[in-house]
Amino acid sequence: MLQLQITGQIAEVQAFVHYLEEQPYFVVEEKEKEKGYDYFSLTCDVKTSLLKPSLRTLHELHIVTADQQKVVLALLDAKVEKEGDKTIVSGLSYDIFA
Fold first, then answer.
1. β-bridge pairing 2-8 and 40-48
2. Alpha-carbon distance 55 to 60, whole Å?
3. Taxonomically, which superkingdom (predicted)?
4. Does residue 35 contact residue 10 with C-beta atoms inside 8 Å?
5. pTM above 0.90, yes or no
6. What would the 3-class secondary structure string for 31-84 be?
7. What confidence score (pLDDT) does residue 75 get?
8. CA dist 88 to 8, 60, 72, Å?
9. Distance in angstroms (rounded) separating the CA atoms of residues 68 and 54
10. Cβ atoms 33, 41 nearer than 8 A
């Protein structure tokens, strides 16, 4: 959660908060309002899912070579397709030590 303090002319602050509330990724909760002679200040809590990492599926592909050795590959977002007698496996693999 983020805390946002906006200070300015009343119409500009309200327009900005209204614009932020219309965005699908944000939930705005107004907390404190302060009105002065020539300014308006608003403190809001803003909740967003943009900063959270998306959950991705990890799959393990087990392959046996012709000489019976086992190889295991970890793939993110793996997809399997059949084309006739071929099986095509695709996905993302990262080596964090490379």
1. antiparallel
2. 16
3. Bacteria
4. yes
5. no
6. EEEEECCCCEEEEEEEEECCCCCCCCCEEEEEEECCCCCEEEEEEEEEEEEEEC
7. 92
8. 58, 14, 16
9. 37
10. yes
User: Rounded to the nearest 5 degrees, what angle is found at the Cα of 14, between the Cα atoms of 34 and 35?
Assistant: 15
Give the residue extent of every domain in the chain: 2-48, 58-92
Cα gap 76→73, rounded to integer Å: 10
Amino acid letter for position 93: S
Q: Mean pLDDT score of the chain, rounded to an integer?
A: 88
Cα–Cα dist 3/46, whole Å: 6
SS3 state of residue 19: helix
| pLDDT tens column, 21-46 | 998 888 999 888 888 888 889 999 99
Half-sphere exposure at residue 91, Cβ-oriented, CA atoms within 13 angstroms: 18
* Number of other residues whose CB lies within 10 A of the CB of residue 44: 20
Q: What is the pLDDT of residue 45?
A: 92
